[in-house]
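Teaching assistant here, posting this on the class forum so everyone can see the example we discussed in section. The complex has two components, and the goal was to see what a joint structure prediction looks like when all of them are supplied at once.
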Amino acid sequence: MKIFVMGIGLCGTFPASGGQSYRELIARAASQAYSDAGITADQLDGAVSIEEDLISGYSISDEYVPDQLGVVKKSVYTICGDFLHGLNSAVMTLKTGQYKMLVVEGYSKASNCLTKDETLTFAYDPTFNRLGVSPHYLAGIEMQQLLADGKYTKEDVANVVVQMRKNALANPQAAYGTNLTIGDVLGARPVAEPVTENMIARHADASIALVIGTEEVVKSAKNPVCISGMGWTSGNSIIERRPHNISEGTKAAAQMAFSEAKIANAKDCEVLYVSDLYAHRALMHMDALGLEKDAIERINPDGGVLGMGDLFEANSGARVYDAVQQLRGHAGTRQINNAKKAMVQGWRGLPTDSCAVTVLEA
Amino acid sequence: MTKMNKRVACIGAGMTRFVRRAQESTGELASLAVEMALKDAGLTMNDIDSVCLGTAPDAFDGIHMKGENLIAGSGGANKPYMRHFVGGGTGVFSPIHGWMHVASGQFKTCLVVTEEKMSPCNPHPAGAFKTIFDHTTEQPLDLTLIHIFAIEMARFMHKYGYKEEELALISVQNKLNAMDHPAAQIAQQITVDDVMNSKLLSWPVKRLDISPTSDAAVAIVLSNEDVARAQTKHPVFIEGVGYRLDTAYWCTRDLAYPDYVELAARDAYKMAGITSPEQEIDIFEPYDPFDYKALHHMNGLLLDKSGKKVKELLFSGSFARDGSHPLCPSGGALGVGNPIAATGLMKIAELYFQLSGQAGKRQVKKDCRRGVAQAWGDLMQVGTVVVMGNDEAVRGRKTFWSEAVPEQLPGTAIKNPQDVPHMSYTPDLRYSWDNGYALTTYLDGFKNGKIRGSKCSSCGRMMIPARSFCELCNLKAVEDYYDLPDSGTIETFTLSHVDWDSSMLPDGQINMFAVISIDGAAKKMGLVHRLGDVDPKDVKIGMRVKAVWKPENEREGNVLDLKYFRPLKDGEAIGEPKRIKPVEMDSTTAKAFPGQIPMSYIYTAGIAGAKFYNDFAQGRVSGTWCEHCQKVHLPTASFCEYSLKKLDPTKDAREIDAKSGVIASYTVVHDDRSGHQMDKPQVVVQISYPEAVGTIFGKLETSDVTAVKAGMNVELIPSRTVGEGLMFKTC
């Protein structure tokens, strides 16, 4: 059974979005996606939201999903993962044959969360891993190991930031486009050495909605894009026994997705996105996908997380939004020539190695 | 909706004991349930293609992204793994998500795990429920879950004419049924009088109307039909699934009847080919966190808004285990316990035990072909329903589960987490929520002594709180705002003796909360607020009330500007809705509302952590030998995350030379846990030992951070501090 992205919506990204409630932010992206899909909300069978408790300030966050998507009393559930986990789950739902059309939604109101590092610290294992210091310490450990392998230099890591922030300049929806030098990045305030402030994505507000459907209902959409492969895998959550110089989660997720999409590797895709929540992670993810470091120039044409901002669970939603624009030929000045296949890799963020990969085809 | 693609069967189940406080850590609880489920299914982790986890709020276990923390204990390491979430409905949604994994054709097998450890939550797990309410319009009222249950229970009693002692019959029955359940936490033989005489918490809710808070984990193995037939002669199939989520604006609904359960049940019945649930379903496991809830949900499961069928079945004794419609033969949440997500899956496991003939003493009298389990959650909002069935009725099988006694189930009950190695932690979780366009005008109304609504030009509803789109009209923009009369009618209410954190209010203090439909708004459209200037015994559903406002100079533009509602006096005038200009948004009017999650935690170090920190206090390091991996795991482990085999941190301990540690990786950290720059940077090190697989993370005591290098030899600095106390020094 083939599943298609029928419509997309993105409201954001903004460094802050005062004047709009989270409900209003989400309703706007949902309305865009429904219009793009040529449907109204009442035609949907349900929704899959991607969200985690506490970020929003709620301790049962899934309650606040149906209203602003217009799916009250429909079949709605929440996935606590990266946006791609939710998208992949929604695809499975459609493949059971129970439903034909769903909306998949993720959002960030990061600007409303006043203690983001504290919240991330709270994600570390209380028995062994809360060390009373910045939760970015694990990024420092990872980057140190990555550099120790000798395949990458500090300058390579810094170049990821330079490239992503530059890409974001060409994206009118990106919050953090700018011109930086490698020296700027390396000379920025150290947070968890060798990780500097500029190597960590800043947070942003945004909402993303996708309408996905089966072949039976895809006709209403003018520009559908096929979801041809999906995979997801979590590396060990016991960080003491997980390698920190490679992303095992990405490697396994990619194998699953590529097998389903019937492609040999990531190089078969014209458009590529990897999670760059931390600059060194982009290189780790590329390595797991079999991409050399000079491929960085082809990665994340939208500016990635470094350029568009950290949207928490919604991060890969912004990448999928751009991938669909690219495959439709609607990406404007950042359009990649002859874009027929796109691969999006997503990562849940520290302290995890929970990763997902989705392949899309025009 | 079409018929399901592939048949999916449950072929194994495992669970820990349900206890008020478990010594095991979050991951350890999950691992124990998983090991049992695999054994019951006759499979190993190698046979498991995918894992999905259901667990309710992060705020219980006290771990943000707790699904990620649970990967190892759930068997998800290096597997396709996902966590799903629908609040309290998560337990019965868990097999639905597992069903999706298999019925989609994506996987042959899926391990479905649920876990809840509520005991770390302080001062009481109930406090975590304060922050399930709308942060701007409801949380300032200091509501918690018991209040909303009591409000719903009062409405249910009013609409269906139940007396409190009639509802108590469910508590009596379920606790009795639980006496035969090996995992049960509060099985007991009690009477209706016991329930009636138990402590009044929030009228009409009394202590024995409520299920307890619990720690536990439950796991099941789902597979496609081919795998199921190969593994067992008695597979139990998932025949139908349904899940529905209603609006978060819970004061706009008649709480007496769960539409969301009915809709979910209709989805599941359609898939299962059921047209008359009363005749075609043999066993019912509705969610019963409170006694009335089982009946409330049964109305929805029997698709009977009149409530007559359920009343007849209750009063005729048909819900007994030997009755025509056995209800909660497991003992339910009221008897077995209520570790939210794990409770729902316990009910699914009960259907599996009953339908595969291995329920032992709990086996219902009638031959069973079909059962239904249901869970509920969120703000009286979500219904999740699963119908399970077998090929033919089977009973009397002698298996582990038919003979199981409490001593055979894992899980270590403790009285107090402070009796074992533990750590205390208070996260600083603070927020400032943008009000947005609609709430800016709504809250400005409070500052001006007005209740404001907005009107949808499509459906014509006048809505409270004001919103900028209509959730029922395809998100149509709503642009007309009105000042409404500040009077209304009590739809339902509670008279509460408990505060938001479950502590008792001072003697004589009663907090009265009511759902009030506001004059001029659409029918049933209302808000929740406090009552005052009225004797509690005079409060009635249908009572007319009027707002009492703070003096103008004390109002701040939030819901507490309205002090409470008092009885409307005879002949007192009521105003008319008046169209107004909404507040213009600019940098002075675009405000945000402050709040926090006010919880703190005491975590047990778990079985492995206790051994680790006991060694650590003596300057020793020991790992745990894993027969499966043929390696020594470090840190100490009570299970192998790849085989999910149980390990014994004491018996399988392997002493490691504490001075043989070397720095595998390190980082110089400049910020504290909250992101504030520290005066002096600290070095975090990852230490490896030649004899072991794994490392230890800690901080390095050093006066020169620039001298730190990978490969340096270090040793532990003994300490009795658990958690942040892990310190090393160079040898």
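For the discussion questions: The two ends of chain B are 68 Å apart (CA to CA). The first strand of chain B starts at residue 8 and ends at 15. Think about how each of these relates to the inputs above.
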